[in-house]
Amino acid sequence: MILEEILSIFLGIFTDYTLRYVALGSAILGITSGALGCFTVLRKQSLFGDAIAHAALPGIGFAYLFAGTKDSLVLMLGAAIFAWFGGMITLAITSTTRIKQDAALGITLSVFFGLGIVLLSYLQSIGGASQGGLDRFLFGQAAALIESDVINLGILSALCFTILILFYKEFKITTFDSSFGQSLGFPIKYLNVLLTSVIVVAVVIGLHTVGVVLMVSMLIAPAAAARQWTSNLKNMIILSAIFGGLSGIIGSMISSTAEGMSTGPVIVITITAILGISFVFSPKQGYLFKHLRNQRKSQISLDNIKTISDKEKENHGNI
Amino acid sequence: MEQKSSKKNSESEKEYSVIIKNLSVTYRTEPALWNIDLNFPKGQMIAIVGPNGAGKSTLIKAVMGLVPITAGKVSIFGKTYSKNRDKVAYVPQRGSVDWDFPTDALDVVEMGLYGKLGWFRRPNSKTRNLARECLDKVGLSNYADRQIGQLSGGQQQRVFLARALAQDAQIYLMDEPLNGVDVITEKTILSILENLKKEGKTIVMVHHELQTVDKYFDWVVMVNRNLIANGPIKEVFTKINLDRTYQEKQRMSI
User: Fold this and answer.
1) In A43-100, where does DSSP find H-type helix?
2) Which residue segments constitute the domains of chain B, with CATH numbers given?
3) What predicted TM-score, i.e. pTM, was given to this entire model?
4) Which of A29, A113, A127, B87 keeps 20 to 30 A from A53, CA to CA?
């Protein structure tokens, strides 16, 4: 009975026109942010991802204000410009002032997000009903995805992966040991800007599905989960992309079962569940196996202590 | 007269692998190195010593242009670093990277070849084999597939040396490679460097243990923001110079 229901939801991807595009769009987001999120996590820039996601919000408002259209490409362009701008401001604050990165991120995140909220509420107050749709970028609204949106997302995702594959070696060395990479002659600053730009594109892809507030979890959670299973960067990126894509598909299927359940948060909960499972069950670093190994170790050392003390007793007896 | 001086100039270029002229480095408003005039002679084991915060690491970073130079000039075999960077290998401080990074020992060594590969070209079986050879030289061929976080501190340091060996350079700039390593690692590193020296390569090492300076090195650079002394161990590694090197900072801070 339950199985049948699950099957019918699953088949919905192939039969239900809307669900197909929702799932496809969410999968594209998950795959892209999963792969690129690995670098965010390994560079310890998780909050940086959060800041640029929030910084995208005023870009949507301004794009609508000046272009007067809700065409997704225009809005995405505005979002990308502001997200990128927010990222660069954070980098500039950190490198030119005494303010540390955490404070700089806090400044960027709150100021841009605040500006975004002000703009959206202003647009809502002057525009009436037709502007109401803009606030869907706060938490995403995957259900509104249509074929042309999905094609746009697909093209952007392909762009990200092309750059990632071309510059894989360079991204790896600047992430692991940037001063060594610099000594080899790789322009660290430009590579950092390039990587940030690619992450901005991934964030923009996520605006439709999970929105600016929850976007950071799509960057961090798949990568953190993948790291539990592998100690190889390439495998980590592939696994992280699979986890991200999977959570996109599963999340959109679950949200399709109930009317009005928003897709973005469900996707985020799904990837968090995958992360939780990875924390517990991964063979090398998982909590469960670590616990079992420790128990076995302590049992062995207990046995050792027993045999030693037994021997000592014998020795004493002999004396 | 003119001819003589130009001849002298070319001779000095033959003798020295690195020539540093009036080098100053400033972090924000704090001077880290002040007006350093210094040459590294070819085929020597050179120690850079000085107290914490004296600018030892900054000095070797400045040679490679890794820190912005306020004033002065550095030349590597008579050319700028960017033109001769393939002649320089670098071993950063072990603590400067995250050893939890998802990669194995062989992969890290292979990174030493990325500079020669250049843009877009991927590591291949040739670079793999070269990296394997270098890992073998430092006695870690059995650890090629080991995740780097699971290596001991000494083994990690040897992986870094293997990566520098893969660069196949003329000058080796090393930032405290003997700091906190085990006896086997220290012996391995020193015997490898001894061989490099025999091949005429220049080894420059930031070094912390003053007791071993005269045992391991031919030449010493004593620095405390200013250059205190620079020359063969026998001539300059004296108590007076040591006192000057290690007291200068106290005087400055008072």
Assistant:
1) 46-67, 72-96
2) 2-246 (3.40.50.300)
3) 0.85
4) A127
